[in-house]
Amino acid sequence: MFLKPPIRTARTSTTLVVVASLWLAVAGNLALWRTLLALPDLTGWHGMGFGVAFALMIACVVAALLSLLAWRFTLKPAITLLVLLAAFATHYMLMYGVVVDTPMLVNVLQTDTREARDQLSWQLLGTVLVLAVLPLMWLWRQPMTTRPLTQQMLRNAGLFAVSLALAFGTTQLVFKDFSSLMRNHPQMRYQINPLNSVYAVLDMTVIPSDQPRGPMQSLGLDAHIASSTGRTPQKPPLLVFVLGETARSQNFSLNGYERNTNPLLAKENITSFSQVSSCGTSTAESVPCMFSHLGRAEFAKRGSEFENMLDVLQRAGYAVLWIDNQSGCKEQCVRVPHVNTSNLKLPEHCTGDECRDTVMLARIDAELAKLPTERRARGTVVVMHQMGSHGPAYFKRTPAEFKTFTPECTDTSLSQCDRAQVVNAYDNTLVFTDYFLSRVITWLKAQEKISTPAMLYVSDHGESLGEKNMYLHGLPYNIAPPEQTTVPMITWLSPGFEQFRHVSTRCLQTLRDKPLSHDHLFHSVLGLMAVKTSVYQRERDFFAACEGR
What we know:
This protein is α/β, with parallel strands linked by helices. 43% of the residues lie in helices and 11% in strands.
């Protein structure tokens, strides 16, 4: 005789909600508990009691959320989604010290296949297996009881009310410690799984906010190239704007770093600004902001989308080109000619599915030739968007001959490497960026026969390399460390361009330690290219201080 499989006891929706909420609150918040244990102000039995209360608060809020979906065909999918979100978030918070907020979710949604592959690891698989796959296997094997609609509705409403009441009561018991914790350690509010992910999704889709609405607003309709005597060069200006990726100012030897990460740029007549603040801590956040005329504070609360710096330059009459060796221009190049080089298969520049930044120089002449001749006769602005120091696979960004600092970390789970190896791998990417920028300058010097060239380099955001157990970037700006918000900015002006702009590199070098930010870029580039428009603000043009000097 065949043995009959055991008959499983049907579970009520309330039971599944309670079990799932407790699992998410305890196991799904390992990163939160690690942070809590490291705090000196919550130790001993007092700290343990607060931790239990905190876990109960999280479980109650999760239970209240799930009670809204505690129906036969929605509860298990809802729990599955929350458990998976918590498992993935836990891995990245434990491995890299990141947090989950709206900008981080935007970054995830904009991640391409190549970047996603760099994030895969055995540690990720193990975390998801333990925190998500195994409990979800148990969940889906549990039969659920069914009740009439009205009865189920009343039970759900009761569960919702009890959960919120218990959450409120528990909060009141530990309110002093809880309020102090959230005030003194604000990053913890972004570590509460899965509520952080739920809030980020709602913030993007449902919650009313002052995010831009309505049609794209035109900008600089009066823009034109200044034609006053002495301003127009005999040869058209050519500006290469190199948009760096994940470079932090602290690791540039030009800015005082003890390692020689800029051996080639140090030989050029350049200015390296050491105190430049970024618009954000991620590419998705910083790039649209740094090309905007608004500045970080106004950009964050804007009510409409506006055209950007490239639109104004093009409207003024210049030829504009965006060359991308990364995952896209974040909609900044949609109205100007653009090309992506990251998928080219040029053996001397590309390995596998990734191309080094020098591939952009291999394509620049051919792409410039495609631009309208009449515009190029007035001048050209080229944006080169680097792969740069994109992590966590820093070791992939540099060929063997540029691995100056060894041994380097070759694990994408950076916290598994010795921190010195992580720094080695990262610094090697800066050595290669130094080489790339020197190649850009060499190319620009060769253009002096037909143009008046200049280069401006600035990174979109910085990077944490293990300081305070934080890696990568993306922390909310108000709590982000300076490693994520202080970025390098470098200018090179040819003699002809100095004469055209009436700005000397010698003068700029006296301002190298002046506090600047991405807020200055829009207006500085317009000023550098002699664009006259009512949206230009001279006080935000950092070149203006040296005009005529």
